[in-house]
Amino acid sequence: MEENNCFIYGKKIVPGIFLERGNELKFKRNQIIYYPGQLLEGILIVTEGRVENFIYSSNGNSKIFFIFGPGSIIGETNIFANVPNPLYYKASDNSKALYVSRNTLVDILKTDYNAVEYLMESMAKKVVTFYYQTNDLTFGEAETRVCNTLIQLAKYYEKKNSDNTVSLNIKITHQFLSDILGINRTTASKIAISLKKQNLINVKSGKYIITDIDKLSAYNKAITE
Fold first, then answer.
1. Beta strand 8-9 pairing with 62-68
2. Domain that includes residue 163, residue range
3. Helix, strand, or coil (residue 209)
4. What is the DSSP letter of 112?
5. Between 20 and 30 A from 75 (CA), which of 43, 89, 121, 171?
6. 33 secondary structure, DSSP code
7. How confident is the model at residue 4 (pLDDT cuts 50, 70, 90)?
């Protein structure tokens, strides 16, 4: 379930035809790329940096849905369904992406099966991930969801240390955990403190360190049974 519930996209090799026919765009850190209500006229393929999408509630709280790393696609479901984009998209770091217009994309898909497979895989993963996110929000315990999130982040942003611990090469705050999991900040803080007391994680200079990824996975499994 952890793999299916992954909210991070990337580490996928971009088919060469997109590199040939896409136009490179650059985004500064914290720059809003798309706003809710926009009709998208093409897709973006992230090639460098990180992009996240999110919504705001009526009281100003935010919920992050996905993190897009290099190799991931943004906007394909909107242009084929011909519906407005419902979310904010923001560059979390200084980022680069290839822009491919809808007409160019259709031409590519007519002749390149690798491109078709690449696009279909992206769309399918998002559908499956939404299912598991809904299941977690409805039935999942907050502590389990925090553990799952840290384990998933380790798969994409790990930096192995000489003492066998794993540093997450991404800044994580209690607010970030709150936004991506749909829990309040106080709950996220209490869970992080509890995991730290059990020597499952540590925090240094704003970076999370997983002291033993296997022990964290085993602990997560134990509290769900």
1. parallel
2. 140-224
3. strand
4. -
5. 171
6. E
7. very low
| 4 DSSP 8-state letter | T
CA nearest neighbour of 146 among 175, 169, 178, 171: 178
Q: What pLDDT, on a 0 to 100 scale, did the predictor assign at position 138?
A: 82
Side chain identity at residue 217, one-letter code: S
121 and 154: one domain? Answer: no
Pair 178, 212 in one domain? yes
Does the structure show a pLDDT above 70 at 95? yes
**C-alpha span between 103 and 97 (Å, rounded):** 18
Among 84, 81, 76, 127, CA closest to 104: 76
How many CB atoms neighbour CB 39 within 10 A?
10
As a whole number, mean pLDDT of residues 73-99 equals: 95
Q: Tell me, what's the pLDDT at 6?
A: 61
Contact 112, 119 (CB under 8 A): no
- Res 99: pLDDT: 98
Which of 137, 170, 199 is the endpoint of a domain?
Answer: 137
> How many distinct structural domains can be found in the chain?
2
Write the single-letter amino acid at 107: D
130 lies in the same domain as 146: no
105, 197: one domain: no
CATH classification at residue 126: 2.60.120.10
- For the entire predicted model, the pTM comes to 0.84
